[in-house]
Automatic annotation (TrEMBL):
One GO term of the biological process aspect: phosphorelay signal transduction system
Keyword Isomerase: no
Ranges where the HTH araC/xylS-type domain occurs: 428-528
Name of the protein described by the UniProt record: AraC family transcriptional regulator
Keyword terms, alphabetized: Cytoplasm, DNA-binding, Phosphoprotein, Transcription, Transcription regulation, Two-component regulatory system
Top-level lineage group: Bacteria
InterPro entries in alphabetical order: CdaR_GGDEF, CheY-like_superfamily, Homeodomain-like_sf, HptR, HTH_AraC, HTH_AraC-typ_CS, Sig_transdc_resp-reg_receiver, Tscrpt_reg_AraC-type_HTH
Modified residues (4-aspartylphosphate): 55
GO CC annotation, single: cytoplasm
PANTHER family: HISTIDINE KINASE-RELATED, TRANSCRIPTIONAL REGULATORY PROTEIN HPTR
Gene Ontology MF term list: DNA-binding transcription factor activity; sequence-specific DNA binding
Length: 531
């Protein structure tokens, strides 16, 4: 609805204008009237109308002077002069200085409505044009800011320097710092684009209210649905005194009042426009390393820099043992193996990228097992289930392993519920026998098969078909797992004692077998894996 004011020194005419049309029905809000030019000027400043109907002949300030003043105050305001025949020439002059229209007294309802409809059309065109111009400027600004974080320019690029001035950057050079914000669990909501836009709108507005640097802040939509906060400080001391508490407040407000979670990555500050790209990339690296930190959703690059080079050495035997436990439907052992992998990651403070590689490998291993038993992911879970996206979207290591544990146990329980073949039952019985007799140094394939009243050749075939390994390999695997537990249990056992406890009569033979299995002698393994 458009706001309108009236100025005329004749009370009768003001009353006539008030009632001659239904202003609200025509899309106008009647905001007030004035009996002279000075009152009209005060009224306009207070109400800021879209339309002013003013008489030319008024005391204190005539209509011509008032019209000129109104146009200087707001060039987009529509001014219509109301005049008698004798002032017709004045009205013609007024048109030349930007007055949109005039109405000759006396006039009827139809003439006024015709003028109002024309005003409405012009106002709509003006507002649409302003919105389009604003949107174009916003898109242009956003494209330019994304160019700055992309690094696709030279420091002395005249276009860049010109655009920075155009978009209100302070004089070059300056200190810049980039902070990136990501909405957690965004992949779960990829269909709800309106919700995502709304959340980004909330974040951007809160950033403007909460973050107040001594300088400037530019907030824009960056790559991969990130909201980017680019800070510009006039000097080093301004940056050094700047507090990040606004970002802490942002995180808490989003979580407590709006019911969703965000992660914030903070890059280091640097000199010159070339530092913008560097700081942005640091903020992204900080976000990627979010999974390796449990304390906070706000991660500073400087706190993760030491982790980025930590790739460690992930033992393949961990995945092999996990797959065996999955094939044996041993839920307790599955949980134990996954807990050991999580402990391995935490103990070595691995980088975010390396953690995600390990997690993706664990997902792939479980999917391999699902296809191995002749099923598909859709049969066990849902058609919409996207495991690699799901694991990537887990914000913390704890949540990632909770999700993976659920993935494995769900697959295991589904497989277990399927009617087992005779060979699967023999396999389970054989594994149970080995678990109970691995300490016997004389334990061989033949003894296991005799206990089950089957031929050893048949038992070997079952192990190969069901587990992908031989019976002897399985016996060795059980013994090595028990040996590792004993080495790390802190009982200060002698090598000969451990050797005997896991079924090796000769400690030397045990040491060789252990090194072949783990890649390390028992003593080195113990030192390396103990905290």
């Amino acid at each position: 609805m458009y706001k309108v004011v009236i100025a005329d020194d004749e009370a009768v005419f003001r009353k006539y204008l008030r009632g001659v049309v239904d202003w609200e029905a025509e899309g106008f809000e009647y905001c007030g009237e004035a009996k002279n030019g000075m009152e009209a000027w005060e009224l306009v400043q207070r109400e800021k109308p879209h339309l002013a109907l003013i008489d030319i002949n008024m005391p204190y300030m005539n209509g011509m002077d008032l019209a000129q003043k109104l146009k200087e105050f707001n060039p987009d305001m529509v001014v219509i002069l109301v005049t008698g025949h004798s002032e017709f020439e004045y009205a013609r002059k007024a048109i030349k200085i930007g007055i949109e229209d005039y109405i000759l007294k006396p006039f009827d309802e139809e003439e006024l409505l015709s003028a109002l409809h024309q005003v409405k059309n012009n106002l709509q065109k003006t507002i649409i044009g302003q919105h389009q111009e604003q949107e174009e400027r916003q898109l242009w600004r956003e494209s330019f800011l994304n160019l700055l974080i992309s690094g696709e320019y030279r420091d002395d690029d005249e276009y860049i320097l010109h655009q920075m001035t155009k978009f209100d950057f302070a004089e070059y050079p300056a200190v810049f710092q980039v902070i990136s914000v990501e909405i957690d669990d965004l992949l779960h909501e990829w269909e709800q684009l309106n919700d995502i836009r709304f959340k980004k709108y909330i974040i951007s507005n809160l950033l403007m209210d909460l973050v107040k640097p001594e300088g400037r802040q530019f907030i824009f939509n960056g790559p991969e649905n990130r909201i980017v906060s680019l800070l510009q400080f006039a000097a080093d001391e301004d940056h050094e005194q700047f507090s990040l508490k606004g970002y802490n407040q942002l995180f808490m407000l989003i979580r407590d009042r709006f019911g969703f979670s965000i992660s914030i990555g903070i890059g280091n500050a640097g000199q010159g426009i070339s530092s913008i790209r560097k700081s942005y990339m640091e903020s992204v690296i900080a976000l990627k390393n979010r999974i390796s930190t449990e304390e906070t959703n706000i991660v500073h690059y400087r706190d993760t820099a030491t982790r980025t080079s930590n790739v460690g050495f992930y033992p393949s035997e961990m995945n092999e043992n996990l797959l065996i436990s999955l094939r044996l439907h041993d839920e307790e052992e599955i949980r134990k193996q996954l807990a050991a992998i999580e402990h391995y990651i935490r103990d070595r403070q691995l980088s975010g990228d390396y953690i995600h590689m390990i997690l993706a490998g664990l997902v792939s291993l479980c999917l391999t097992y699902i296809y191995e038993i002749g099923k598909t992911v859709e049969e066990i879970f849902t058609p919409e289930f996207s495991p690699f996206q799901e694991i990537t979207n887990q914000p913390t290591l704890k949540e990632a392993f909770e999700w993976i544990t659920n993935l494995y146990t769900t697959a295991m329980k589904y497989s277990k519920s399927v009617k087992h073949s005779k060979s699967a039952k023999i396999l389970a019985a054989a594994c149970e026998y080995i678990q109970n007799h691995y300490q016997d140094s004389q334990l061989k394939v033949e003894e296991v098969s005799r206990s089950l009243y089957i031929q050893s050749r048949y038992l070997r075939r079952i192990f190969k078909q069901e587990l992908g390994i031989g019976v002897s390999d399985y016996i060795t695997d059980v013994r090595m797992q028990k040996a590792k537990e004993l080495l790390l249990a802190g009982h200060n056992l002698k090598l000969s004692e451990i050797s005997e406890m896991v079924g090796y009569g000769d400690p030397s033979h045990f040491s060789k077998s252990f090194k072949k299995y783990t890649g390390l002698p028992p003593s080195e393994y113990e030192v390396l894996h103990k905290k």
